[in-house]
């Protein structure tokens, strides 16, 4: 039996976490997994799904051959069930994260996130959740092992396929979280049945064994171009406050830089896309209930509770930000129309600056989506929809700086017939 040991080096961008619902901290809805030393921890099992999906997308699919039978509940789960050996020849042995710049500790941040109300296009009441995530980017070293029967060693094509893996780390991949790129795959084979192999096997352990064996290098593809890229400037103040309580509502920051999170982009763009689709093809053409329906063309692109979306919205850092002293506003009592002391609030928006919207595709995107999102961006440019918090109080107007131009009309072939029928009636 020939064993192939591999070391994949992944560069991880800031703003990621592996972990889910927390039980022991009432202030945090979703926590990050940490190891006993307090470092963000990535269990190999949390990456296995991303690797399997990558292998499954190859032509021909390589997931069953390399990783064994598909998990129950996934399409074609019985594929490979007639194989005698259903154990996974390829496995992720472990991962280790180290922050960029050799920082002594990983920075953590707490982020609030709200759902967008379908009807109002604003934050839905009661939907605020807090998550703890890693603010530090860095390097994730992933140790992989393939045990091939003599007639089924790992081939050069297999290694090339693995080196093209675009991993997703942890949760919220479609909302700016867990962006990563495989920069390098080191590999090598060892046969412990031979004297030389046995000597290496017995004289090293853990990461040292991988370092000794995996000495050949494949360079990965570095950061792909985004599927959509648009530049904006802040017209009259942008507040990306995410609900963290405090005396002043400040814009969300990461390592000292203000940012508009991908989740905010995704919320407004999805909401406006639904509006456009309904305006064009009728009320039933897009989600009607507050929860995603899972049936409409918008759910197919932006995802729903059972399926991840096809678009990943990056977090946007605000360049050349200009912050002003906190503004004090007075909340108006909706009943009496007078001011109420308890509603006094102070905000500190980013008064000026530039930012880029960048969207990556996670699958094949139907052709209607690109022009439709450009219509949404033009609506933002025209001031029809605001971005961030307190848009009803004059904040959040962005101007599109590049590229300019008129988007193509929105034509969704599968809805065209129903629209024609409606018009004929
Ligand atoms: Zn839907």
Write a structural description.
This protein has 425 residues and is α+β, with helices and mostly antiparallel strands. Helices cover 22% and strands 25% of the residues. The protein is built from 9 helices and 18 strands. It has helices at 44-56, 63-67, 156-163, 195-203, 207-213, 262-281, 297-302, 369-381, 413-424, and strands spanning 2-12, 90-99, 108-113, 129-134, 138-148, 180-190, 216-219, 228-234, 249-250, 253-254, 257-260, 311-313, 316-317, 319-323, 327-329, 345-348, 350-361, 398-402. The strands form 5 sheets. Strands 2-5-1-6-7 form a 5-stranded antiparallel sheet, sandwiched between helices. Strands 8, 12, 14, 17 and 18 form a 5-stranded antiparallel sheet that branches. A hairpin with a 2-residue loop joins strand 10 and strand 11 (257-260). Helix 6 (262-281) packs across helix 8. It is globular, with a radius of gyration of 25 Å. The structure holds zinc ion (ZN).
Order of helix and strand elements from N to C terminus: EHHEEEEHEHHEEEEEHHEEEEEEHEH
Distance between the termini: 70 Å
Oligomeric composition of the shown chains: single chain
Tell me the number of helical segments per DSSP (H or I, 4 or more residues long): 9
| Total beta-strand segments | 18
Q: Into which percent range does the helicity of residues fall? A: 10-25%
Largest sheet: 5 strands, antiparallel
Mean pLDDT: 84
The set of bound ligands, ions and cofactors reads: zinc ion
The unreliable regions are: 339-343
Mind telling me the C-alpha Rg? 25 Å
Task: Report the portion of residues in β strands.
Answer: 25-35%
| Shape assignment | globular
Content-based structural category: alpha+beta
Strand order in the largest sheet: 2-5-1-6-7
């Amino acid at each position: 039996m020939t064993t192939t040991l591999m070391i994949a080096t992944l560069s991880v961008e800031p703003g990621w976490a592996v972990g889910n619902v927390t039980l022991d901290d009432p202030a945090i809805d979703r926590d990050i997994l940490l190891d006993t030393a307090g470092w963000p921890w990535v269990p190999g099992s949390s990456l296995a799904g991303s690797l399997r999906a990558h292998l499954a997308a190859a032509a021909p699919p390589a997931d069953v051959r390399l990783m064994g039978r598909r998990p129950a509940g996934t399409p074609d789960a019985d594929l490979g069930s007639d194989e005698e050996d259903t154990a996974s020849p390829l496995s992720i042995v472990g991962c280790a994260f180290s922050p960029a710049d050799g920082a002594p500790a990983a920075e953590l941040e707490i982020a609030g996130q709200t759902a967008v109300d379908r009807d109002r296009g604003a934050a839905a009441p009661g939907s605020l959740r807090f998550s703890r995530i890693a603010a530090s980017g860095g390097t994730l070293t992933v140790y992989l092992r393939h045990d091939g029967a003599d007639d089924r060693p790992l081939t050069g094509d297999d290694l090339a396929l693995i080196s093209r893996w675009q991993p997703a780390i942890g949760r919220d991949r479609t909302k700016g979280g867990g962006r990563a790129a495989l920069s390098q795959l080191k590999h090598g084979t060892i046969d412990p049945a031979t004297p030389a192999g046995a000597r290496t096997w017995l004289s090293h352990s853990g990461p040292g064994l991988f370092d000794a064996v995996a000495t050949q290098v494949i360079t990965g593809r570095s950061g792909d171009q985004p599927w959509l890229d648009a530049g904006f400037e802040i017209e009259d103040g942008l507040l990306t406050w995410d609900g963290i309580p405090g005396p002043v509502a400040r814009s969300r920051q990461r390592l000292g830089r203000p940012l508009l999170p991908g989740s905010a982009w995704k919320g407004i763009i999805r909401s406006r896309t639904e509006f456009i689709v309904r305006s064009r093809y009728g009320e039933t053409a897009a989600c009607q209930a507050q929860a995603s329906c899972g049936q409409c063309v918008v759910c197919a692109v932006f995802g729903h509770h059972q399926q991840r979306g096809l678009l990943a919205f990056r977090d946007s850092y605000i360049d050349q930000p200009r912050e002003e002293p906190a503004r004090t506003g007075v909340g108006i009592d909706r009943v009496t129309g007078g001011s109420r002391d308890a509603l006094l609030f102070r905000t500190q928006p980013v008064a000026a600056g530039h930012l880029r919207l960048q969207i990556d595709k996670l699958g094949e995107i139907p052709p209607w989506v690109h022009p439709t999102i450009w219509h949404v961006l033009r609506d933002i440019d025209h001031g029809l929809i605001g971005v961030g918090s307190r848009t009803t109080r004059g904040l959040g107007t962005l101007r599109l700086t590049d590229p300019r131009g008129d988007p193509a009309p929105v034509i969704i072939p599968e809805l065209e017939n129903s629209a024609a029928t409606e018009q004929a009636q």
